[in-house]
Write a structure and sequence with these properties.
Length: about 350
């Protein structure tokens, strides 16, 4: 049978819980936090769940939770707090610390059993899912390593990197020309990145494409990426038009998320280009993605990215709403600043 560890300084509570649970579980008991940690630390005797009182002399329940978190036990053992307190503040504090559920006194046998059973089942499912994710991650890393070792793949990455350098060079020349002619710069900075082998493999697998060099070339548009940070919205459109109008640059697709923002508030101008690169023996066209944003749009996107990829964030819905409102404010601010700049420029004439 699975083992349940009951931690409570009141003997009557320990005995009540043992009577309720001993037909289905092996029940061990501890009278305080120190005893609980000693039992949790015994090799080969890991509990399937911990029923924990919060208020105990010496080491209380909060200290036990902190020690379990430090030792990595909270990831392996679900904790159900046993308490007569039912305030939202205390429960929220416990959930934030990593507690799985609550069992309130006075104890009702059927509720206690169901809460324990449901918590253990959910915890087991979560752990199985995490193990599958970790296994998938290991597979991706192994396959990515094979890709990195393949000479054709490395040659293709060199070509994508060459496309990035070609875009950057052309943008820098435009920037120098603007600086000379108009005494201002059309963009603030350029950021570039080459998609990792692991990200390439994961995306091909997710979309059902074969994992080959030709498949990468044919099916992925964002292996080579360049992000251009501009001061004002009109600089974005002016610079995009100049870049795509240059000899050899072929515009394959445009997604204007500035005029047509995503539902979450995301704004940016995306261009998929065929970029000419000049090798020792031939000229080739390589696909690359160029994103144009204002400084404020880029700051917003960076914060939204953290929310999207962080595993556990409290009040996610509230933050999403705040970000959407901020995106609207950023759009208004960008155009207000642009109008102020125009007034300044007109006053020089």
């Amino acid at each position: 049978m699975q083992k349940i560890l009951v931690v409570d300084d009141a003997e009557i509570n320990r005995e009540l819980l043992r009577d309720m649970l001993e037909d289905e579980y092996t029940v061990e008991m501890a009278a305080d936090g120190e005893q609980a940690l000693q039992k949790l630390n015994e090799p080969g005797r890991q509990a399937a769940a911990l029923l924990l009182d919060l208020h105990m002399p010496g080491m209380d329940g909060f200290a036990v939770i902190a020690a379990m978190k430090e030792n990595g036990w909270l990831k392996k053992i679900p904790v159900l707090v046993i308490s007569s307190e039912q305030t939202a503040e205390v429960e929220n504090q416990c959930f934030e610390l990593g507690v799985s559920d609550f069992i309130h006194r006075p104890f009702e046998s059927s509720i206690v059993k169901n809460r324990i059973r449901n918590t253990m089942e959910l915890f087991a499912c979560k752990n199985q899912l995490e193990e599958k994710v970790e296994e998938q991650y290991r597979i991706i890393q192994m396959q990515a390593e094979k890709l990195r070792e393949a000479k054709p793949f490395n040659k293709l990455m060199m070509e994508y990197n060459s496309a990035i350098m070609e875009i950057e060079t052309r943008l820098k020349i435009l920037n120098a020309e603007f600086s000379q002619e108009y005494n201002r710069n059309p963009f603030e900075s350029i950021k570039s990145r080459l998609k990792s082998a692991a990200s390439i493999y994961e995306k091909l697998e997710r979309k059902g494409y074969p994992v080959t060099v030709e498949s990468i070339r044919e099916n992925l548009n964002d292996v080579a990426g360049v992000r251009v940070i501009c001061s004002f919205p009109d600089d974005i459109y002016r610079l995009a038009k100049l870049l795509t109008g240059q000899e050899g640059m072929i515009l394959l697709r445009e997604k204007d998320y500035i005029k047509h923002p995503k539902k979450n508030g995301y704004r940016s101008l995306h261009l998929i280009l065929n970029v000419p690169i000049f090798l020792s023996s031939e000229k080739k066209y390589i696909k690359a993605e160029v994103q144009f944003r204002t400084i404020a749009m880029d700051f917003w996107a960076s914060l939204e990215h953290k929310l999207k990829y962080k595993k556990s964030v409290d009040n996610t819905d509230e933050i999403v709403g705040q970000l959407r409102a901020c995106a609207d404010s950023i759009e208004l601010l960008d155009y207000q600043m642009q109008e102020i700049r125009n007034k300044i420029d007109r006053s020089k004439v």
